[in-house]
Amino acid sequence: MPRLRRSLPSFLHSVDSLERLVAKVLAVVTCVVIAASLIQLIQQVLISLITPGGTSWLGDGLIKVLGDLLTVLIALEVLQNVTSYLRRHVVQLELVLVTALTAVARKVIVLPAGSEDKPQLLIGLGIASISLAGAYWLVMRAANLRLPATDPSKTTSATAFQVPDRSAPGDEGDAAAAPAHPPH
Length: 184
What we know:
Blueprint: H1 2-50, H2 60-88, E1 90-92, H3 93-109, H4 119-146, E2 160-162
Antiparallel strand pairs: 1-2
Helix pairs in contact: 1-2, 2-3, 3-4
């Protein structure tokens, strides 16, 4: 049993190192995807502007451009999530919820004509929107209750939940027992 306790911190350190490596790879891949999609979006807009009789900026043409633009924005928010995790080893719940709200909003914007005939889809998107907005409101309210509004030096841009340090001796890796607190 004592040998198991000694090997647990090194195992957890290995898992933590692997986790950070995966997050770094995800950040690089996300950067490549964002760069490629941004180049493609700029190219599409420029071609539409240059060619005579190109894409109409009203109706379906505008919806397609907005959908592509929001897709790039969602990818940027995902990159922020990953880099925040790498920097502070925290998950910023506000940012995750805003990313999800942006994705649902994008889905609503790019709904094709005739979607009004699919009530289950519309009800599902409505429930997702209300649920995410409610969760965001709760997180913001909890953050405001924890931090006094009169002291601007103690406000944070996003609520973060500390991931427990799994390499600490005596820590059994119980994430449920870790208290949630904003970063300092």
